[in-house]
């Protein structure tokens, strides 16, 4: 069955993405603090007042409240509306690319593509704020990716790759960074990468298959290297620990959306 992806589809995906972004804000705030993401209800971290429905609308509430808590006036970080907007925007980009890649028809595999995007967004924000990639997200994230792709053994509608590719992806993703990190430790006596980075590349392998692992790492190394050089030239960045997670997430997301274009581009690069 072919269903043309309509403009109302994009609007729906965008609005749904805003709501997911609102939930991701809760995840980003609470998971590193080891708090439940379900209870208690959303509240101001300063005065504890529970948000009323109109104070909990993505982006709009932040604008209406002019970035301050209604009760105590404490500032609400711009990260909140920013993550909501980003999640909405990225969700629309995924739907748009999915429609193009699949001849403008609606596919069930859009759902795991969106879920993968949201997990990467949450991990990126947490890593930027805390320099950590929590096991509470990376481990179940890896398992969910593997299960979704294993569902292809019964029905291929949801899967992004095969079960075997996913399993090899975990081994290759985790294993390759483990080798790099171990070699780095042996040579310098310093820890170059956190265990979270290993699990994040394993997670990308679980969702996209082993074929995506190398170029995800390549994109992460190049983009991370460029930013590090820019920071050094700007006089910043020395002795400043730059988390690697956001670059791995970027690489994984680009490999989700443009795998063929990136492989072609890389081969072109090799060929001079
Ligand atoms: Zn307050």
> What kind of oligomer do you see?
single chain
Total number of domains: 2
Ligand types: zinc ion
The total strand number stands at 0
Regions with little confidence, pLDDT below 50 for 5+ residues: none
Overall radius of gyration = 20 Å
| Helix/strand/pairing category | mainly alpha
Mean pLDDT: 91
Portion of residues within helices: 55-70%
Distance between the termini: 43 Å
Characterize the largest beta sheet: strand count, sense, and whether it forms a barrel: none
Overall spatial form = globular
Strand-residue fraction?
under 5%
Number of helices: 10
Write down the secondary-structure element order: HHHHHHHHHH
Describe this structure in words.
With about 270 residues, the chain is mainly alpha-helical. The chain has two domains: about 110 residues, no CATH class; about 140 residues, no CATH class. Helix content is about 65%, strand content about 0%. It is built from ten helices and no strands. α7 runs parallel beside α9. The chain is globular. The model has no long low-confidence stretch (mean pLDDT about 90). The structure holds zinc ion.
